């Protein structure tokens, strides 16, 4: 048996708006849209992607799953995403952590990790 990871599903009140926000933030392409769904991928034929699906209720509480990103320049990436509309959030990470927790326009948390020390 073989499994291929195809996508992460994110519930959204406005799938098109949130999906476009993430497409712009990641530099990804839109591969599918409908009234209730908006899918993006790194490239049209490259997976995994992120599929935003309509849900009527807004997010409540801390996300049980979130994405982590490791940039080349942590501070520059945090500044870029804040300028793009992300907000800083406290999920109990404490001071002095080597990552920054942000949230997208619908409140979904994600982390910008510190620079890798591996060669």
List keywords for this structure.
119 residues, alpha/beta, 2,3-Dihydroxybiphenyl 1,2-Dioxygenase, domain 1, four-stranded mixed beta sheet, 8 strands, globular
Question: How would you describe the overall organization of this protein?
Answer:
Helix content is 18%, strand content 29%. The chain contains two helices and eight strands. The protein is globular, with a radius of gyration of 15 Å. The mean pLDDT is 91.
The total count of strands amounts to: 8
So how many helices?
Answer: 2
- Biggest β-sheet: strands ordered side by side in the sheet: 1-4-3-2
Mean pLDDT: 91
- The CATH superfamily label of the largest domain reads 2,3-Dihydroxybiphenyl 1,2-Dioxygenase, domain 1
Number of domains: 2
The largest pleated sheet is described as: 4 strands, mixed
Distance between the termini: 34 Å
Oligomeric state of shown chains: single chain
How does the SSE layout of this entry go?
Blueprint: E1 7-12, H1 15-26, E2 29-33, E3 37-41, E4 49-54, E5 67-69, H2 74-83, E6 87-88, E7 100-103, E8 109-112
Parallel strand pairs: 1-4, 5-8
Antiparallel strand pairs: 2-3, 3-4, 6-7, 7-8
Summarize, please.
The chain is 18% helix and 29% strand. The protein has 119 residues and is an alpha/beta fold.
């Amino acid at each position: 048996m073989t499994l291929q990871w195809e996508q992460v599903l994110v519930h959204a009140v406005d799938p098109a708006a949130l999906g476009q926000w993430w497409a712009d933030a990641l530099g990804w392409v839109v591969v599918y849209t409908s009234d209730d769904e908006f899918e993006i991928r790194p490239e049209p034929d490259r997976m995994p992607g992120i599929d935003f699906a309509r849900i009527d209720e807004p997010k409540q509480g801390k996300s049980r799953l979130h994405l982590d990103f490791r940039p080349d320049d942590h501070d520059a990436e945090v500044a870029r995403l804040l300028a793009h509309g992300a907000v800083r959030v406290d999920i109990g990470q404490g001071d002095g952590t080597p990552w920054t927790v942000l949230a997208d326009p619908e409140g979904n948390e994600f982390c910008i990790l510190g620079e890798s020390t591996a060669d």
